[in-house]
Amino acid sequence: MQVFFGDPRRYQLPACALTIGNFDGVHLGHQKMLQRLRLEADARGLPTALLTFEPHPREFFARDNPPGRLSTLRDKLAFLQRLGLVDYVFVYRFNRGFAGMSASDFIDKVLVLGLQTKYLLIGDDFQFGAKRQGHFEMLSSCPHFVTEAMPTVLAMGERASSTLVRERLAAGDLSGAESLLGREYQISGRVVHGKKLGRTIGFPTANIHLPHLRPALQGVFVVQAETADGVLGGVASLGLNPTVSDTPDYKLEVHLFDFAGDLYGQRLTVRFLKKLRDEARYDDLSALIAQIEKDAGSAKTYLTSLQREQA
């Protein structure tokens, strides 16, 4: 899979079978769409291509209240790579100029001239262009490519969508989110330096850099982290950490059991297994430590039972 940024015309790529979308989370609905795209592309002798955007358009339009991001661009590309269904990914910068592009210009300049689209597969609710004026009928009337709409994909009787995944995560329903994603929910990021408070109270944490304004879930969780030293169990806090911090920045802090090494600079993938509780503010540090001890005990109990089930 090759990834391209900027004007695709400079890469001199062949005509393609294309789909368009944010593909946030790359859930089961996205996966079914890409399987269909692969079949249609193979039947036409075309490579498959995906056009996506960074930042998420809803982040651009709602900067004061952005939706929770399910996956970073890096994670999204990794999920797509793992599927093995996409030949080319085009990442377009979603800025004021792109947002103001008319629907007809989007078709002419992006789909026809830029990407040389010969087959286009879109979701049944796809809209595009300034003020979302573009629709399926406009695309299907274009003589340069064939347009088809992907019917709704159901997972456990519900429409698979990024919005529904966010709702499940916000409610702490990790198993419900997993049924829509086809895998456990995860966040990856680089370990950065923090206040180092955890080590002074007996619970050193790996502080994961979060590149987006708002995560899709908050609270205290049982986790497993993929590290250079293998998969390690732990407990994680994801939120604003109100007891010891007064900044509006979200933090992912992971305490790994039976580990005493240096993780700074490493990239960790944190899989969320079970929500223990919502985030809370404590009157003093001793109350916070007592709660962390309780959370760690609950997480160890859960991980032990999980190991027995998998044995």
Structure description:
This protein is of the alpha/beta class and 311 residues long. It folds into 2 domains: 2-159, HUPs (Rossmann fold, 3-Layer(aba) Sandwich); 184-310, Elongation Factor Tu (Ef-tu), domain 3 (Beta Barrel), CATH 2.40.30. 32% of the residues lie in helices and 27% in strands. It has helices spanning 28-44, 57-61, 73-83, 96-99, 103-114, 136-140, 162-170, 174-181, 197-200, 285-310, and strands at residues 2-5, 16-20, 48-54, 88-93, 117-123, 146-150, 154-155, 158-159, 186-192, 206-208, 219-227, 230-239, 251-256, 267-277. It has a 6-stranded parallel β-sheet with strand order 1-4-3-2-5-6. A 6-stranded antiparallel barrel has the order 9-10-13-12-11-14. Strand 5 (117-123), helix 6 and strand 6 (146-150) form a beta-alpha-beta unit. The radius of gyration is 22 Å and the shape is elongated. It catalyses: riboflavin + ATP = FMN + ADP + H(+); FMN + ATP + H(+) = FAD + diphosphate. Catalyzes the phosphorylation of riboflavin to FMN followed by the adenylation of FMN to FAD. It holds the Pfam family Flavokinase.
Order of helices and strands: EEHEHHEHHEHEEEHHEHEEEEEH
Q: What general form does the structure show?
A: elongated
CATH class type of the largest domain? Alpha Beta
CATH superfamily of the largest domain: HUPs
The figure for the number of domains is: 2
Category from helices, strands and their pairing: alpha/beta
Query: Looking across the biggest beta sheet, what order are the strands in?
Result: 1-4-3-2-5-6
Span between termini: 36 Å
Using the coordinates shown, work out and report the CATH topology of the largest domain. Rossmann fold
